[in-house]
Design brief:
With 143 residues, the protein is of the alpha+beta class. Helix content is 36%, strand content 20%. It has one domain. Strand 6 and strand 7 form a beta hairpin. The N and C termini lie far apart (70 Å).
């Protein structure tokens, strides 16, 4: 009587590994693109919240934005809003928020990708006091 063989042959295992490798090479870049886009949306939301905080500052300070920033214009640090995304500082910093342009009557807010987002397809994001949204590398980044 012949003994029956159980298990997988080496060829079957190699084919399975090859299929998994092919599926991973297709799926992983798509997954990373999705993660990058979700972090960008989080930064956009933070910029809009930051703009709301700037408007509240202006209302409370005689229609003047200038006191909202601390330090020099080059650093653009703020005293009224978080300087990073996530804004509650609970996770890995993905964007740095600043106020690169600030006058008594206008401002520009900027979110610069950092850490895992450093290679973001859109580069930095900006939002100014008139509501104009822009990015370093194209117009489709705020859609």
């Amino acid at each position: 009587m012949k003994a029956t063989q159980t298990g997988f042959t080496l060829i079957e295992l190699m084919i399975t590994v090859a299929i998994i490798g092919i599926l991973s090479s297709i799926g992983y870049p798509s997954y990373m693109s999705h993660i990058q886009k979700s972090k960008r949306v989080e930064a956009q939301g933070a910029l809009v919240s930051f703009a709301t905080a700037m408007e509240q500052w202006r209302v409370e300070n005689n229609n003047d934005y200038t006191g909202a920033a601390v330090g020099t214009a080059a650093t653009g640090q703020t005293s009224i809003f978080s300087d990073q995304v996530p804004t509650d500082e609970s996770g890995t910093k993905t964007y740095t928020l600043s106020i690169p342009t600030l006058t008594a009557s206008a401002y520009t807010l900027k979110a610069v990708p950092s850490g895992t987002q450093a290679g973001d397809d859109c580069g930095y994001l900006t939002l100014d006091s008139t509501g104009v949204k822009a990015s370093e590398k194209g117009t489709g980044c705020w859609e």
